Structures are given as structure tokens and as C-alpha cells.
Amino acid sequence: MGLGAALVAILPLIGVVATALGDGQADIALSDLSRYALTSVALSAQVAVLTAVLGVTAAWLVVGHDFPGRRWLSWALALPLAAPAFALAYGYADLFDAAGDLRIWMRGTLGVDMPFEMRSLGGAGLILSLAFYPYVYLAMRAALLNQSSQAIEAARMLGASPARAFFQVALPMARPALAAGVALAVMETLADYGAVQFLGVQTLTTGVVRAWFVFGSVEAAARIALPLLAFAAVLMWIERMGRSGADHDSGRGRWRPLTLQPLPPVKAALATGFCLMLVGLGLVLPLGWMAHTMIDITPEWPRLIAAARHSVGLAVIAALVTVALAALLALGSTRHPLAARIASLGYATPGAVMAIGLLIPAAVLWRLVPGSVGGFGMGIALLIYAYAARLMAAAFEPIEAGLTRVTPSVVQASRMLGRSETGTAWAIQLPLARGALFTAALVVFVDVMKELPATLMLRPFNVDTLAVMADNYARDERLANAGWPTLLLVLLALPAVLWLTRKISTSRPGEP
Amino acid sequence: MTDRPTLTATGLARRYGRDAGVHVVDLTLVPGQVTALLGPSGSGKSTLLRLIAGLEAPDAGEIRLGETVLSWPGQTVPPEHRGIGLMFQEHALFPHKTVLGNVTFGLSHLPRAEARDRALDLLRSLRLEDRAKAWPSTLSGGEQQRVALARALAREPAVLLMDEPFSGLDASLRAEVRDALTPALRAAGAAVLIVTHDAEDALAMADHLVLLDQGEVLQAGTPEACYLRPVSLAAARMLGPVEALPARVDGDAVATPLGRFAKPEGEATGWQLLVRPGDVRLADQGVAATVVARRFAGNVTDVTVVMIGPDGEHRLTVSHAGPVPAIGQPAFLALAPDRALVVPA
Amino acid sequence: MTKPFASVRALAGAFALGLLVAACGQPESETKTADTAPPADAGVVNLYTARHYDSDLRLYERFTELTGIRVNRIEGNPDTLIARMQSEGEASPADVFVAADAGALWRVQDAGLFQPANSTMLQEAIPANLREPGGHWYGFSRRARIVAYDAAKVRPEEVDTYEELASPRFRGKLCVRSSDSVYNLSLVGALIEVWGEAKTRAWVEGIVANMARQPEGGDRDQIRAVGAGICEVAITNSYYYIRLASGEDAGDREITERVKLAFPSLDGRGAHVNISGGGVAANAPNFDNAVKLLEFLASPEAQSLVAEYNNEYPASPSVTVPAPVSAYAPFEAHPMSVARYGPRQAAAQAMMSQAGWR
């Protein structure tokens, strides 16, 4: 069963590899390809460094120090997760456009211009970092909360200043979490489609798209995608290593949370300011600007509401299906650990690459079931399948974590009392892990709400989601119109993100 | 090594600690001497330890090391500047540093080579020199504990605090490690404070014993004094099982179910007689009782007897070496006057 | 747990859920046309469209009003849609494919995904150079790829040919979007057709040398960059400028008072023109309805509506141009067949990449 679920997830990846083996040429100069690859690496490196600095600083401030607003900032800092990266790209590109009011005012009144463009590698790195730093923040926050204060106190007792205790003890001990968080941020960067494309930064994904769209060669596109897949696999591996490393030092012995260090007024104000700035730059400023520009536009309410219904409906179904499959995978993961690893690859797969791979299982389905292509239900099923393949890892992680907290003896007791393995899963494991199942469902829900490339490719007739609508307007260079679906999307995703972050912020080691 | 200062805590109080609070505690830690702080969980002993370590600030009172004030209400010299070492209950070894890395961590003020040499010396004295390159997760519980000790001693602290140092070890290893450790601690010359809930550890190691309950010191003194002359039932119970029998004042003496004993100095509203199981003997004559239960425990047999006195029935358990009457048979109890512990009720 | 059927069951469950949504999601496309009392249900037409304009929806609603044929629609990137049609093969439900670039239409044809629709009405309504000779696809609206210039710094006669844009006169003073844009690909494809490889290559290199900044943003952003003084000339599609000039944003309207539109001429025969158009899919299940949709799009009413909604030019010279497009309508369009751009796009992309046009 676990194997079956894993197969579901990796079919598109097999599709990419199979396609890459086919004939087909794209006349893309090697120099261009290497430039795309370098840009991808440079962008990933930027995002890795920036998300690490921002996320670690925020987590360390919130977990280890007391300052005004700490309590609500500790969950508010994760809220940018509700905003898709392309939304931030729209907002920032427009706000800081060289020909925009702000820059004209800066040049005219202040006599200075912005030192860099948002529509550039640097700008894209900044925007994606602001969108993805919550991954590092959440991972580091959990790791620091899990760390017993004893290690830091031991360092202090051995003469280390608070700073040295953090950099030499707390941070190295949380290194697995840092690696995992950064790997997630970089994977999201590689998988990004909307933001990078809108900002005109040409990454390897650009190469895939150019080979496919301009030169019309899916095969060449798939070949360009292979290094991306390899990169993703390496990141996935790093992330898994991070998780396995995190196991050995948590949960043993008498756990005591870190002592909150009171900060003197000036430093406290700086800490509050830094956290507010992150939330502001990651959510409030770009979306606020979009809200400002869209205020003159009267949206087409019926279309907007229909798109919202589609977004929410797809996200809910995808959450249910993905969680069901991921639960199968997790229940079987002790037996097939490799299957679980491979199935997680989809998460790091760039959207355009996933799209190529998805066409192959789709084609099989279309040919197997004549008339299914136009069929609404089949179209939806295929789309749900795409979501499940892409987000399997995101759902798998919390469910696996939840299941490992179920003591083996409880499972064995159920088997001794005459329940089958499946019966035990239903009666014991899944109910005990229901919190984890719900968390996984919410993660999938939020990600599907923001999803773009697979939806663009595979949706059936007359199904527009909010993300698709926003993308359409943006491609038509009507950013003000794109504001409405974007903001509605964020508003609908926000409660789920809120629930997730509040739950994360109250959970303690040893609790389910 | 010889002119190390004494740590004195006076009027120390901490009301809302994370653990139980501490109410007005005085404590003195003398160099070269091992003080054991004994108390059940929730007695405030961990809070007291954290106050001395500087991990928390007191609400009242102060802590001095020699002439230097380390803590005063609401303020505390940060732990890294106090010259106090702390061995954590779970050892808190840094999992990402080797044994040597752990021990040299506190020696960052020394040149690298010198720090390394000192650490290796310490490890050698604790028979750990071959584990210098090992990772903490590969060490046994006893080894981890010795590394933690080496790490704490490396800085030559004036005061060494040890939080439940033997709690992680199983019973067979415990006595061995404890007995090996005690000379090393004395040799270090620091004022040592051991916090523990185990009476056996405290009695075996301490030069000076402090009994703490509900944030207050019940009794302080040598282990012998505390054991032989408890000031209250609560203090006596901390050092071993004890049973209380009523004692009625009768002139200069108190009358108890086990006979008459001298009344101690001082005034109290009432008195009681404390009896440890090994102190009462089964004899040929004495106070008459009936055996109601017996439990064989190896070199002794625990015998439960019932005495009928003027003020009712009293039940008592006696540990006796030698033959024991059968259940339902009479027995005679004798308590030597020097073992009679009469304390205020 | 390892029973192979279990995963099949899980998948089947997923599909069942999908069908469930189908049941609750389907009716809405029907309600749209209910109040306009259409003719009896005349079936459906399935449209794959790479145009992504809100206004097109109103166009399709009008079609349903007139014919009773419901329009099912998927929007997407042209090549995503092509890939999808290829994967769907003979089972493809696509009846009509519509794109906003002649090159994209050619690629569909090249992939064998169009079939001829030899309707007399279409052939009469659409000029010969705006449709594929074999009837595989037809252009319904035109957009010119022309020049927006800073009226204070540039004289109109300095931008009345495409060559001038690459001349040293505009060194560091030109704004243009990236070479990924199909509009640029078709423009350069047309230049290759007229000038040949060598001259076009020199032109592309001249453009790259003239760039005021690395390509960023869309056409609208280039016009606004001229307005902000970042460059003096920008290459843009006509409707983006017209949209700024007649839109709701006061700031944008103010820009177009300083930034004017020029129609450069290619070899003295007029400005480069691209089309929006469509054709009947090779495996169209509703062939008749597909042709009806194309004929509707070619009708004077639809052409006029597109011009009005999206500020494009009608394809037929006979259709009256509505405001505000009418103010920009009197220009000479190059008579080259738009079917020539597509085959040149790959060469154009290679040439632009080599020259460093991002």
C-alpha cells in the first residue's frame, strides 16, 4: 500500500526522465544554458543565505528574549506563508518600478534612486527570501524550543557570553533544523514559477520553458530539467539528513525551556522593530500596495467568487486525498523507507518540470478512458493527482512524525488483541495521530491555494482558480486587476496558516 | 588553591520560580567541603541551585562569594562571570563537540595548546584520556558523568554545583561512581554543593548536610547529627523510614508506648517518639506486643507488631536479625534510651 | 499492507471525489446564459485559448446568446496548451485553438493539431495576408508592434523606420522587453523574412547596444519607463499604449500626454502587424460548432467588440474601428503574410540570445 502511494508520487518524475530520453532538439546555446544554471545557483545561494539570516535571527529573538509584542509576533512571523511568492513579486515590482511614483519621487525629491531593481537577480533573491524565510524561522523556532535550556546554561556556566553560547552551542545543535529549513526554502525557490517569471529572472526553469515553448521540444526541455531534478534530490537528501540528525538529542532527560532573556529598552525596541519589519516586508507592504492599487478597480464579482469556490474546493479535496495517500505511505514507511524518500522528490520539483512529467500519466489516463479528457470529473481527478504527487512530502512529514509518537507497544497490544494491521491503523494509529493528519491537511490546503503551474496545465474546462486569475491578469499587464484574486487568495489561506502557526507556537516536546 | 573564598547566601528568597519557591534560606559553602542539599522534588532545591548559579535572580537576600556580592534582589552577576561551576543532572554535554571539545569549551581564555593540555590532564586524572576524541553520544552514563565533571573542574571554579549527579546511573554503578568521585572533589579544593533527593548519596558524600522542604531549611549539620538528632518528624523522614508514636509529658520525662524517656530541652505543645525500624529490638522482655505480619528481607526480617496501650492500639514495624515469632504469637520490644528520638509533635 | 489493490482503491477514491466535485461544480456554466433565453440547446464548443483577457468572456457570452452553443474554455500558455493537445491525442476534446500570436498558431499547425476550415464566410471576411493559406487558422484582430517615444526628446521622423531604432542615435536610450516575448520573436521573424539573416542580426545587435537597461517587465512597463525618463523610445504593442491613454489611471493618462506613439515602417511598406486568431483542432469532436465560433469571431460585430474591449484593430478593413482605437487607426500596415513569422521564430530566438538580448 505504501509502495502504491509512492508510485503515485513518482510517476511524473519517471515521466520526465522518460521524456528526456526521447529525440528532440532545442537550439539553445550552451552559453545561455550555463547562464541559466548559474542564475539558478546564484538565486538559490542568495535565498539560502538571506532566509537563514532572517529566519535564525527571528527565531532566536522570539525564543530566547523578552520584548514587547514577542507573544503575537512569534506566530505572526510565519504569516507570510499565506502569500504566494508571485503576489510579493507583483507588489514589489510595481511599488519599486523604475517608472513608478515612488521612484520618481525619490529621484525628484531625494535626489537618489534605489541602488538596485526589483526585476533583477538581486530583487528576486530578496523577494523570494521574504516569501520563504518562514520555513527557516519555523524549523529553527521548533528546534530552539525543543532544545533544553541546559546546554545554553552549561555554556554560560563555563564562561561563555550569551552571544558565544548561541553561536557555539545553540546554533550548532540546531544545525539539522537550519539545514532542513534552508533546504525547504531553496526547494521552493527552484519550484517557483510565477515570481521568477514575472520578475524576468532567467533561471534553469526559463531554459525549460524556452526549450519547450519557443523551440517546441518537450524532450529537450526534459533534458534541461534533469539537473534541476538532481539538485532537488540533493536538497531532499540534506533535508532528510537534517531530520534524522535532529532525533538524537531531543526528548531525552528533563526538558526545560530556554529562559527568556529580558532586553534593555533600546534592544527590545530593535527586536520588536526587526520582527515587525519581517512581517511588514513579507506580507503587509506588498499586499498593502496591491490593495492600494486595486482599490479603483471594480472586480468581476461572479468570476472572482467562482474562482474562490474552485480554489477552496480543489484545496479541500486535494488535502483529503493527499493526506490519505501520505498516511498510507507513512504507515508503510518502516517497511519501505526508500519509497518514502523517493516519493518526497515531487516537492522539490520545479512546476514547469512537474508539468512535463504529468503529461505522461495524463496521456495514459486519457487514452485508457475515452472521453475522459473533456469530462469534468476526470479533469479534476487528474489535477488532484498532480497536487498529491507534488505535495506528498509536505503531508508525509507531519504524519510520519505523528505516527512515530504512537508507542510501538500500543500497536502491538492491539495486534495481540486480535486486530489486523489495517484494523490497528484505523482503530489505534490514525486516531492517535489525528492532530498530525489535520496539520498535514492544512499544509496541503495552503499550498494548493497558491499552486500555479499544474493548475494552469491540467485544469478542466471553465475552472479558474484565484491563482490562475491573478496570473492571467499579471500576464496581461493588469496588475491592479490581479490584486483582487491575489488578496482574496491570501485571505482564504490565512486562517489555515494562522491555525498552523498558533498550534506550532503552543506545542511542546512530548505532546502529540 | 588554598585561599578560595567561601560562598554565603543570606535570607535568600525566590517566590515565583519555575520550580517551587525558596523562602528565606541561609547557606554557607566552605572550600574543600562537600555540602549536600537534600530534599524531595518540589522542595525548592533546584531553585536554590539556580539562584547560586546565577541563572535566576533572587527576590530577596543576597549571595556573596568572599567579599564579592554575586546576587541581590532582582539582579545577578551573569553566570559566565561568577566563577561557579555547574554539573547538570543530564550532564548537558554538547552533542556536537568531542569529549576534548567539551572540556576545553570553558578554557577559551587560555592559549589553545595550554587549554588542551589542561583538559587532557583532567581527563587523565578521571581515567578518560582514551576517550578524548569520542563523541558524547558514544559514552556510557558513568563516562558522561566524569566528562561533565572534568568540564566543570577545568575552569577551577571556586564553587562547584552538582545537580542530582547520580540520578542517571543504575544502582549497581552508583555507589562505585560516588565513591570514586568523592576524593576527586575534595582534591579539587572547591566548595562543593550536591543537590540530591537520595538520602544514601547525601549521607555518604556530605561533610555538611542541609535538609530542605517546601522552600525552607528543616535542619543543617553533619550527616551524623542530622541522622541521630533529627529536629522533627519531617527531617527524620528525609533520611530514612521512621514511625511516630505519641509521647505524653510526665514530669521530666515523656511516657510512650515503648516506655519512658527523657524529655528534651525546650517547649512544645506536644511531643512524639520517632522510631527507626532498626532501633527497636525484639527481646526476651520489654513492652508486650502481638506479631501480626512478617516479611523476610534477607539478613533481617521485618516484623509488624501491635501494642495495646492505655491510649489505644499502636502498630509498629521492626527490622530484626535472628529468629522471629510466628504470626499471632507475642513478642517483647526494647528501645535503648540513646536511640529514643523525642521531638516536638 | 502491501496488497497492490489497496493503492488502486485509493486512486479510485480520489477519482470518486473528483466526480463529486463535478456534480456540484458543473451547473454554473449553464446559469450564465439562462436569463438571455437562447435558442434551443445547440451543444457545446470546447475552446483552448492562449488569450487571457477578461473581455473575451463577454465575447463568448454573446456567441452563446446568438447560437445557443455553450463555450467551454481553458486558458493557458500557448505551448502548454499545445503540449496538452498532443498528449490528449485523438481523445482531445479541443474544438478551437485561439492564440494572440501568429507564431503560436503556426506551431499548432506545425504539430498537426489544426485541420482546415474552408468556410467561404471566413475567407471573405479575413484579408488573405491575415490567415493561413490552407485555412488552418484565421486572424481576427490585429496589433501593431511599434514605438512609444518621448515627445520632448525625439522627433517623429527619427522613429519612422525600424532601422532607426538600432542606430547610434538611440544608444542607451531604448527600452524593450525580453526575447522570451512572442511579440518580439514574431517581430524579429518578420525582419528576417524581409531583410534576411545578416541585416537582421546587425539590427538585433544594434538594439542590444541601444538598451537603456536590461529587459524587464512587460510592454506597459517600457512605456512607463519612457514616461519616467529612463529611456527615450520603447518597442510596444499598440493596445498597451492605447490602454494607458484611455484607461482609468490618471497617472498613466498623464504619461501618454508626454509619450507619443509612432508607426515605423518596414521597407516603406508599413508597420509590423501581428494577429490574434484561431483555427479548428485536428480532432475536434464538434467540428460544426467550431466553425461557427470562428465565423462569429470573424463577424463584424465580434471584431468590433474585440477592438472595443481590448483596444486591438479589427482584421477586416471594412469593419468600423470603435473609439478609442479609432484615434490610432490611420496607419499603414505591412502586407506580409502573418503565416511567415512562425517558421522564423526559432531562428529569431537563437539570433537574439547570441546577441545578448535577454
From TrEMBL, chain A:
Protein name per UniProt: Iron(III) transport system permease protein
Question: Which biological process terms from the Gene Ontology are attached to this UniProt entry?
Answer: transmembrane transport
Q: Which residues cross the membrane?
A: 38-63, 75-93, 121-144, 165-187, 220-238, 268-291, 311-332, 344-366, 372-389, 425-446, 482-500
ABC transmembrane type-1 domain location is: 37-237, 308-500
The protein's matches in InterPro entries, at most eight in alphabetical order, are given as: MetI-like, MetI-like_sf
Name the species this protein comes from. Answer: Brevundimonas halotolerans
On whether tRNA processing is a keyword of this UniProt record, the answer is: no
What's this protein's family per the entry?
Belongs to the binding-protein-dependent transport system permease family.
Subcellular location(s) per record: Cell inner membrane; Cell membrane
UniProt keyword terms in alphabetical order: Cell inner membrane, Cell membrane, Membrane, Transmembrane, Transmembrane helix, Transport
Q: How does it sit in the membrane?
A: Multi-pass membrane protein
Q: Name one GO cellular component term.
A: plasma membrane
Its principal location? Answer: membrane
From TrEMBL, chain B:
Q: Which residues cross the membrane?
A: none
Please report the organism this UniProt entry assigns to the protein: Brevundimonas halotolerans
- Cross-referenced Pfam families: ABC_tran, TOBE_2
**GO CC terms for this protein?**
ATP-binding cassette (ABC) transporter complex
- Keyword Transmembrane helix listed? The answer is no
Q: Which UniProt keywords apply?
A: ATP-binding, Cell membrane, Ion transport, Iron, Iron transport, Membrane, Nucleotide-binding, Transport
SMART domains listed in its UniProt record? AAA
- The name this protein carries in UniProt is Iron(III) transport system ATP-binding protein
Q: Which InterPro entries match?
A: AAA+_ATPase, ABC_SmlMolc_Importer, ABC_transporter-like_ATP-bd, ABC_transporter-like_CS, ABC_transpr_FbpC, Mo/tungstate-bd_C_term_dom, P-loop_NTPase, Transp-assoc_OB_typ2
The organism's taxonomy opens as: Bacteria, Pseudomonadati, Pseudomonadota, Alphaproteobacteria, Caulobacterales
Give an example GO molecular function. ATP hydrolysis activity
Q: Which residues form the ABC transporter domain?
A: 7-239
One Gene Ontology BP term is: quaternary ammonium group transport
From TrEMBL, chain C:
One Pfam family name is SBP_bac_6
User: What does the entry list under GO cellular component?
Assistant: outer membrane-bounded periplasmic space
Q: Which residues form the signal peptide?
A: 1-25
Q: In terms of domain of life, where is this protein from?
A: Bacteria
Q: Which UniProt keywords apply?
A: Iron, Metal-binding, Signal
PROSITE patterns in the record? PROKAR_LIPOPROTEIN
In alphabetical order, the GO MF annotations are: metal ion binding
List residues binding Fe cation: H52, Y239, Y240
User: Which family is this protein grouped under?
Assistant: Belongs to the bacterial solute-binding protein 1 family.
Which protein are we looking at? Answer: Iron(III) transport system substrate-binding protein
